[in-house]
Design goal:
This protein is mostly beta strands. Helices cover 13% and strands 53% of the residues. It is built from 1 helix and 9 strands; from the N terminus they run αβββββββββ. The strands form 2 sheets. It has a 5-stranded antiparallel beta sheet, covered by helices on one side. A 4-stranded antiparallel beta sheet has the order 3-8-5-6, with no helix packed on it.
Amino acid sequence: MDDLDVLADEHLAAARADPHGRSAHLLLRRRPLRQAVIALTGGTALDEHNAPPAASLQVLRGAVRVTAGSGDVDLAAGVLHPLPQERHGVLALEDAVVLLTAVND
């Protein structure tokens, strides 16, 4: 069993020490489901990428902005948000940790 609070703290510390401002940990990979904890320092972005068939982002710490052609959405700690079915990116508005849950074909 994984403790999300402990993982969030560990990966936020690792992201702060990383020159690219990020750290990630794959929690679960059981096709078709995948879950990962991703930590980003403020101002760090995950560049625009294709969306999986179904995905959500839960903010564990800080705040992020999901950027997409259909509009940007700011998410704060505690929020669970379905990701758009279009190319999108993620920008950390401050030091942040998210739980990405994705279903792949």
